[in-house]
Design brief:
- The protein has 275 residues and is mainly α.
- Helices cover 49% and strands 1% of the residues.
- The protein is built from twelve helices and two strands; from the N terminus they run ααααβααααααααβ.
- Helix 5 (118-129) packs parallel to helix 8 (195-207), helix 8 (195-207) packs across helix 11 (254-266) and helix 10 packs across helix 11.
């Protein structure tokens, strides 16, 4: 038994001069690029060998790996470098006739539409509603009503959180280089019927004042979508609130209708996708 063997392995993996540091840096920045752009510079993130795909931009991969090493292996710095780049800020909209030379966007000439991962969707719903518990560290839990970030879920293969399963979280039985991203009916049904989502909608409505008005509609748009509603959207919002309130029957049900409106915003593509 030698407790120093693991430390020696870690030092060798990150040794850019005499160990595997150069390869490790390339693998890391490729994974980060895949996270931000939907596909890595090497599209086989778990295979950089002869059977894996070749990098689409080998010079860029080398440059980013070198910058990661020179920056003391700072992941935060690399995230910032990628997100401040021009390629990250490209539009996802494609005009007619564009893309004929590269229809699959292999060269990253436009933005790929990416749906948030299940953990990020859950955490974002809690964050915009004011329910997110920012407490860090400590043990995990199997309680699906937990309000801390999803990273604090204790993973039990027979009791995975429903929202994670619906939005393509891996089953934890095997290593997975890249998650699939499906669009299926159970995802919409979960956002309509999940108790945690409903609780978040009530909390969001309460933060905006509970009573629907031009200001409260604007507030929930700012919270969920980080922008003001357009005049057309504001008009449709009030039409929805009036019609939805009437469906509850006699009396004033404007507060319940406003909660429904807040919950509806959680299901918008603009909230679920990075554009």
């Amino acid at each position: 038994r030698s407790p120093m063997k693991r430390a020696a392995l870690a030092r060798w993996i990150t040794d850019a001069d005499s160990g595997a540091g150069q390869l490790a840096a390339r693998v890391i920045v490729n994974r980060l690029w895949q996270h931000h752009f939907g596909r890595g510079i090497v599209s086989t993130p778990s295979d950089f060998g002869a059977q894996g795909d070749k990098p689409t931009h080998p010079e860029l991969l080398d440059y980013l790996a070198g910058e990661l090493i020179r920056d003391g292996w700072s992941l935060k710095g690399m995230h910032k470098r990628m997100m401040m780049s021009k390629v990250y800020q490209e539009d996802a909209h494609v005009l007619s006739g564009e893309g004929a030379a590269d229809p699959n966007n292999t060269l990253f000439w436009r933005r790929n539409r990416q749906r948030l991962e299940g953990e990020a969707i859950r955490d974002s719903i809690l964050a915009v509603s004011g329910l997110l518990d920012p407490t860090m560290f400590g043990p995990g839990t199997l309680d699906t009503a937990m309000k801390r970030r999803a990273i604090y879920f204790q993973i039990k293969r027979s009791a995975l959180p429903p929202m994670m399963i619906a939005f393509d979280a891996p089953d934890t039985l095997q290593s997975l280089g890249q998650r699939s991203s499906t669009t299926v009916a159970p995802q919409s049904l979960l956002l309509m019927n999940n108790p945690l989502v409903r609780e978040a909608a009530k909390s969001l409505a309460k933060r905006a004042g509970s009573i629907p008005s031009a200001n409260s509609v604007r507030q929930v748009y700012l919270q969920v979508l980080n922008r003001d509603p357009t005049p057309a959207e504001a008009q449709m919002a009030f039409q929805f609130l009036v019609a939805q309130g009437a469906k509850y029957g006699e009396g004033d049900h404007s507060e319940s209708a406003f909660v429904d409106f807040c919950q509806m915003l959680f299901g918008l593509n603009e909230f679920l996708y990075v554009r």
